[in-house]
Amino acid sequence: MPDKPLYVLLADDDEDDRLIFKEALEDIKIKTIVTTVNDGIELMEYLTQDGVLLPDVVFLDLNMPRKNGMQCLEEIRNSPALKHLTIAIYSTSGAERDIEETFVMGANVYIKKPNDFSTLKKVVEEAMRINWQYHISGSNKESFMLSM
Amino acid sequence: MLFLLSNLQEYSMAVFMNILIKYDISLTCKAILQEQLEKLAIDFNIIGLNEIEFKKDLLPEQTELLKSFLLKYGIEIIENQKTALVQKIKDAITDMVWSDDILPNIATSAYLADTLNHSYGYLSNLFSEITYSTIENYIIFQKIERVKQMTISGNYTLTEISYQLNYSSVAHLSNQFKKTTGLTPSAFQRIVKKKRENRAAVSN
Fold it and tell me: Around Cβ B179, how many Cβ atoms within 10 Å?
């Protein structure tokens, strides 16, 4: 893993979920810096600021007001500046159809929000680790799909 | 200050004039680095005295270019030796997994030890220390990547793929695929196909 912290951006409208997510990241072995935004509009504004430092991974809730995760995913994949970003969907739905649909739209990771904290830590750490593996091995990002 | 003045007087009596200089070596180096790095036109940060962070990965050509820029100032890019050996381990695994030949039946540990001239125990510990992962994990990662690429190409059946990559059975391949990606090979295939159709629809 890298010596410097990885930069993580989370878009989720639920305040509790944001807090728990941050705590989970603080608890894992991989060092991270986390920024959170409250919905899809904020996310896209954040990502398109001039000179913004782009995150190593974006965790994206699907159900958000104003602009939902699917719309963000589509905008990100259609933007030349952002399309290479690793997108991890972070959702309460575990329906196979939703999962496949997000991969078709270009998501790299699908995490069904776990009910307990230790599983959350485990899946988030695994997602970060696999993303790093793709990053350093120069493997084809196009085929990076991981459902947890 | 007085010392400096008297020195100058002394020198001024000679035909030649010498001046004394003093410099801040770290500032000098930083200025040189700054100048040379700007030629690459990639955003960077100079961290402390001997580390440079780039906002993007350098292409091999760019690294070579930078090496040549810096060489005339006696500045060298050092790659950590341990990191270099880990890279060799990865390269050896990649070569083996992505070869056109059918994956050999020999133990990977023996293959790596032979290829790299170190004991497997040493390689394995070093790999875990540097990558926080294991050699076994890395092999599975590369094998599943190859399975994906072969699936995407559409030219192979799962049976053929499992034979090529020396899985004991299709079931074993499917299980490892599911365990590694969370998806079944057929779901993966379906997703890739839909992605392609979407892209075709957009470009039409």
Answer: 10
- On the 0-12 / 13-18 / 19+ scale of CB atoms within 10 A, B27 is exposed
DSSP string, B164-175: HTT-S-HHHHHH
B55 touches chain A (CB under 8 A): yes
Q: What is the pLDDT of residue B1?
A: 45
Question: The dihedral of CA A27, A30, A32, A37: what is its sign?
Answer: negative
Q: Which of A137, A146, A148 to mutate to test the interface with B (most CBs of B within 10 A)?
A: A137
Predicted TM-score (pTM) of the model is 0.73
* Helices A69-78 & A40-47 angle (0-180, nearest 10): 20
For the domain A6-147, what is the CATH code? 3.40.50.2300
Residue A53 touches partner B, C-beta closer than 8 Å: yes
Q: Which residues contact B120 (CB under 8 A, 6 or more apart)?
A: B109, B110, B112, B113
B15 vs A63, higher pLDDT: A63
Contacts of B68-73 spanning 24+ positions with Cβ under 8 A = B69/B36, B69/B39, B70/B33, B70/B36, B73/B32, B73/B36
pLDDT score at B167: 94
Are B110 and B104 contacting, i.e. CB atoms less than 8 angstroms apart?
no
What stretch of H or E contains A33? Answer: strand A32-37
* Separation between Cα atoms, residue B194 and residue B201, nearest integer Å: 10
Mean pLDDT of chain B: 85
**Residue in the structure block whose two tokens are 């159900």:** A63
Contact B131/A at CB under 8 A: yes
- Give chain B's domains with CATH numbers: 2-71 (no CATH), 82-203 (1.10.10.60)
Q: Which residues of B touch A96 (CB under 8 A)?
A: 187
- CA-derived radius of gyration, chain B: 28
